[in-house]
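ZP: hey, is the nicotinamide-adenine-dinucleotide complex queued? I don't see it on the tracker
AM: it wasn't, my bad. submitting now with these inputs:
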Amino acid sequence: MRYLVTGGAGFMGSNFVRYILGKYDDAVILVYDKLTYAGRLENLRDVIGSPRFKFVKADICDEQRLIKVIKEFEPGVVVNFAAETHVDRSINEPAPFLKTNVLGLFNILETARMLEVPLVVHISTDEVYGDLWEKEPVNEEAPFRPSSPYSASKASGDLLCQAYWRTYRLPVIVMRPSNNYGPYQHPEKFIPKIIIRALHDKPIPVYGRGDQVRDWLYVEDFAEALDMVIVGGSKGEIYNVPGFNERKNIEVVETILKLMGKSSALVRHVEDRPGHDRRYAMRGDKILGLGWKPKTSWLEGLKKTIEWYVSNKWWWQPLVDDEYFKLDTPWDKAF
Ligand SMILES: NC(=O)c1ccc[n+]([C@@H]2O[C@H](COP(=O)([O-])OP(=O)(O)OC[C@H]3O[C@@H](n4cnc5c(N)ncnc54)[C@H](O)[C@@H]3O)[C@@H](O)[C@H]2O)c1
């Protein structure tokens, strides 16, 4: 199979590329990535050089480039991870989110329609459902209630996918994973931030009381779910991918500190982020129906992640500076 992976130099995309090349001897992958601050070739260091791996530095908003690359590579599937992904950044500057997450995705769908790509899998998010505080976990039919410019842009992308299926019968599948964690995640994100700050014995900012709930999924388990959807998923469908692992933010911080042998005195409660959703929670009947379930337990996943950051300082060191360790209102000052 030939995979064109947009956004494949980011956290989840690079883990997926590694998973597929390791699993299938006949897989050929082309990563198409703009290399924003979040995308790095270092994330793909162990596959660069393989005859089954190619890389193109380009923007999904660049229509002509996308057409040319897809024409030449002739993928069996286009998997779209490319996105602006950091909620805090979307609050400060929403425009790039609309551009990449809506117009960029539109380009992918249009190009795939024109060139008759056999399958497009778009990676969306559980954040499209918005805050589910004290509500039952939702299935794929639940209404959208996005809270941030990030989640609104992702919800818009999902609607485009649905329209392209309904109107043009473009073979597209949408996946909505919960919060992923694991190696190669940018230091700006929650779990890497806790680990890196703890390694430096720096205070760890926790929004509000830290009682927000997220459902954590180890990144390799998501790669497996995506593989199963490519192989056996139904076109036009949407698949929630929960971690079945809901945790309060404060619990995540305390567990990591404990595993690292650090004191919980490092915790600092800071002003909450505007529009902060208190809980995401999804049902996963459809993806479970394909025979998938997460394999990595929470403690096992956390231990592997901590070990990876401890042993790969070279990877994250260039991304953190004095500013990174400051504690002022993180939602608008941290980055
Ligand atoms: N990380 C999570 O917990 C999580 C959870 C649910 C959904 N998602 C979704 O999964 C996808 C991947 O998330 P991630 O955490 O790996 O993100 P990331 O920020 O680590 O990586 C995004 C990648 O997209 C690339 N990119 C950005 N704009 C681009 C453009 N215009 N053209 C080409 N490439 C571009 C970046 O260079 C980077 O390599 C995103 O669509 C995100 O919305 C992430």
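AM: back. The chain has two domains: 2-180+216-241, 187-214+246-275+296-330.
ZP: great, adding it to the tracker
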